[in-house]
Specification:
This protein has about 140 residues and is α/β, with parallel strands linked by helices. It has five helices and five strands; from the N terminus they run βαβαβαβααβ. It has helices at about 25-40, 60-75, 90-100, 115-120, 125-130; strands at about 20, 45-50, 80-85, 105-110, 135-139. Strands 3-2-1-4-5 form a five-stranded parallel sheet, with helices on both faces.
Length: about 140
């Protein structure tokens, strides 16, 4: 009893978590996948996102996404992919988080030098500051 009433039992309903990994073909994407795959449970979903723009074309991104989807499916994960055409990967990733109601965003670092990061900005740093979800940066 709690205050003259029976205490309610805690709910055992578990919430499905939606993970998103932004992939770019680098080793840092591998690290992000390794981190995320350790946290994903059977009912969770995983969305792979690749952003094309000045540096990459659509065909490269779609091939990359297909490779990641195949890998995740082989690991038994519920997977989907999304190609985004944008010159600003930082903003595109954060908008996708909102549009797809992502719970956890996992990114790799690109290993930019301090000087490049100061002038170009870091995608992972921007997403940590602006994404409306938990963000994990794998190094």
């Amino acid at each position: 009893f709690c205050g003259g009433r029976k205490a309610k039992k805690a709910s055992t309903i578990s919430k499905m978590t939606k993970f998103m990994i932004a992939v770019d073909g680098s080793d840092h994407s591998d690290k992000a996948y390794d981190v995320a795959s350790k946290m994903i449970k059977a009912d969770d979903t995983l969305l792979f996102v690749s952003v094309a723009g000045k540096a990459k074309n659509r065909a490269e991104c779609e091939e990359l996404l297909s490779t990641w989807a195949d890998r995740a499916k082989a690991d038994g994960l519920n997977t989907s992919v999304l190609y985004i055409d944008s010159d600003d990967a930082r903003d595109a990733i954060c908008k996708t988080v909102d549009e797809h109601r992502v719970d956890v965003l996992v990114l790799g670092t690109r290993g930019l030098s301090t000087l490049k990061r100061m002038f170009l900005g870091s995608v992972s740093n921007y997403c940590v500051q602006h994404a409306n979800c938990d963000v994990i940066v794998a190094k």
